[in-house]
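Entry for the shared binder. Reason: the reviewer on the internal report wants the predicted structure included alongside the sequence.
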Amino acid sequence: MTTKCGFVALIGEPNAGKSTLTNHMVGAKVSIVTHKVQTTRARIRGVALEGDSQIVFVDTPGLFRPRRRLDRAMVAAAWGGAADADIIVLLVEAHRGITEGVERILEGLQDLPQGRKIALAINKIDKVEAPALLKLTKDLNDRFPFAETFMISAEKGHGTDALRHWLAQNLPEGPWLYPEDQIADLPMRMLAAEITREKLTLRLHQELPYQLTVETENWEERKDGSARIDQVIYVARDGHKGIVLGKKGETIKAISKLAREELEEFLGRRIHLFLQVKVRPNWLEESERYSEMGLDFKDGN
């Protein structure tokens, strides 16, 4: 049997639906999905099987105009993921069309090495009428020679089977890189931290979510089959600590409960989750924090 295997980079603006599409393709939650932009920091890989092909999805951070060191490192990781991939899929939101951000991405695609296939996936097609969709498809293909165009709804699963099939057909021949039952190459400690960070992002608003990070400090397997997980939430300022804790600790309790429930569902066993909040004023300038997130500190310069 001839097997195929390769990397597929999903790129697009923040909130274009990259994480939702990764999770749908893989059939499990490997990438955090929130309505906040810039939530995907590390290049999370989800692994999907289609026939004799193993598709490894690189869910890159959203491409946007960077301002801070963390932003610059995230954008560098996104383009790095695209440059390393066998196939690139650009996701564009149907109802937003060709924004300034999409224009910048189209320019960036021109600078990538020749030879790799780049497909277009117009997402959230249920939000626009057919004539607008056809015009957007034509306009985008006039600006860049996409190998194929797909109209999808990542959330509802429309059109995703055709996309998965096309990706599987166009990957290079080669042995599978991961065991058949593995869905992500992210260590469980980091995946657990991402789940907690998602709950924080959903619960807390405005700028705070981008000024905090979560690390799994300890993972202890217990004899009864359960696990104890200790995590630290690092915030940049004292005032942020109070926001995360909430009145009488109500916010942190609610976040802990939601994260624990999702971890239990994901791992299929009992979890004892303990969260601590620590103030670390310069965590955005510490190289170790970037390594934890799978980003390169130097890319933020």
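Summary line for the report: Residues 250-267 form the longest helix (18 residues).
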